[in-house]
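[#protein-structures] MJ: dropping Glutamate receptor, metabotropic 6 here for a structure pass
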Amino acid sequence: IPGDITLGGLFPIHSRGPHGVNCGELKKEKGIHRMEAMLYALDQINSDPELLPNITLGARILDTCSRDTYALEQSLTFVQALIQKDTSDIRCSNGEPPIIRKPERVVGVIGASASSVSIMVANILRLFEVTPLCTGSGEGQVSEVVTSKHIRSKVNGEQPNAAKPRWGAKSSPIADLEDVAEGAVTILPKRASIDGFDQYFVSRSLENNRRNIWFAEFWEDDFRCKLNRPEMKLDPDKKKCTGDERIGRDSSYEQEGKYQLDEFTCEACPSNMRPAPNRTACRPTPIIKLEWNSPWAVVPTSLAMLGILTTSAVVVTFIRFNDTPIVRASGRELSYVLLTGIFLIYLITFLMIAEPGVAVCALRRLLLGLGMAITYSAMLTKTNRIYRIFEQGKRSVTPPKFISPSSQLAITFILICVQVLGVFVWFAVVPPHTIIDYEELRPPNPDLARGIL
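AK: finished. structure tokens for Glutamate receptor, metabotropic 6:
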């Protein structure tokens, strides 16, 4: 869209595609709706003669496909005008230097939506002094940007060139960075329904919205029909679009992630909930976790059971022949310790698959490293004992110190205690807890939303 001043836009018009494909299915609310909201805002600004007199805002909007690497490639087009290219050795067929049209300069970029995409794009744009406005990113990952030069530039007296909604309303993004964030100016946009946008969006059609290059695809997806597009084959299972369909009349339309509070008001559902089918209330988002009957659980548990049975068989054999010369020569005390560590290593498999909870998470931390610590401590002590015996035998017939079974066990347990102490320090610094991720599986269709435990 041409204009005196050009703004960039990065929106997840499509979801992340499968392996080897950049883009997947169309995203209505977070993609098309947000993009049309930006176009609507530009129309309102450009139509107001008092807001920016004699200045028209233009836009260059690109699709991130919900993928950070793809968004990075797309964002490089925003800075093409700022990159100096050497064309001195390029000549046309008539010997004249070529006339290269320089792309318009983008002064700011709105987007992207996902935090991982916003962080990567912001790090590139800031090198060219292009202002990114990340309006839809989550706090968890974007808080990393707070620790980057964006906010740390404030310490040097520079103007921060990135803004994030809700930074001024919550303390979690600036935890342990209060001294850096003190005095910062934050942006907290007012969230409210705009009646004009609803009227604008439902009036969009194939004829009056040709500036949106993805609108034809949205039309097909929204009305479940097919247009006669040269690059697309007509699906016989879908009806043909007539072009007379209307948004809100022949298809459902509601603002992103909201439910109808009353006759005139819509409210956004909390992050752990989704709208009900009739959009009049919120309902809990289902939580998915690794189940015991899943192939991803059956295979490792089967291998763990085989290892536990094998280890138990070795322990029974050692107990049966406990006083034989072979078992005694192998260092039976440390051998039992070694077998205990191996048993714990196999046992941790069941804790990794069990439903996460405070107790389960605590045991995971403790046993995951404890099994390895017991195993390697016993092996190290046994190897050191044999080495010292042979080295002492070269010099004298006097046996070295601390080679008795009790001494060997004491050395092993001292080494194990170092691991246990580290785990308890970890408990004190970061207590065991569970996290439910509601953003990983939040598709355009809220009925398919899931939380990951």
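MJ: nice. Residues 295-429 form one domain.
AK: one more thing. The mean pLDDT is 80.
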